[in-house]
Amino acid sequence: SFITLDILHIGISSIFSGEYPFEHGVNIEYKCILPEDKNKLTYELKNRGYYMAANSANPNITDKSGFLTEYDYYEYNEGCSNQLYNVLSNLSNEKPNFIFLNFMDIHIGR
Q1: 13, 79, 80, 105: most buried by Cβ count inside 10 Å?
Q2: Is residue 26 within 8 Å of 33, Cβ to Cβ?
């Protein structure tokens, strides 16, 4: 995927909508919520029978942000990479799977 900006809400909105920021309308100044009708990626995958799982350590990834529509499983964890097993153990054996992971660990130098 190609992210148009290094700002979470704008970049993720572009990935999930397939649109540039001026098209999906999410911006840094006043609108940080992806409209439900713009979340084309998760909507299409869910309608095609995918099991949808997400795990995030980012407090900005919430139900209110518009990124979590259509998910069957969601878990918030601080230190997300340590909790990856929980997501993997909840995947479907009967359907194709889509996993959205948002790691914060990579932002911390070690």
Answers
A1: 13
A2: yes
Helix axes 40-47, 8-17, angle to 10 degrees: 40
What is residue 72's predicted lDDT score, i.e. its pLDDT? Answer: 92
Residue 106 φ then ψ, to 5°: -70, -15
Residue 6, Cβ density class (10 Å: 0-12 exposed, 13-18 middle, ≥19 buried): exposed
Tokens representing 60 are 């900005």
pLDDT digits (tens, 9 = 90+) for 53-87: 988 877 777 777 777 888 898 888 776 556 677 78
In whole angstroms, what is the distance from residue 53 CA to residue 46 CA?
11
Torsion (CA) 48, 104, 2, 21 in degrees, nearest 10: 90
The side-by-side arrangement of strands in the sheet containing 51-56 is: 73-76, 51-56, 97-102
**CB environment 22-61: b (16+ within 10 A), e (fewer):** eebebeeeeebebeeebbebbeebbeeebbbbbbbbbeeb
Give the chain's mean pLDDT: 78
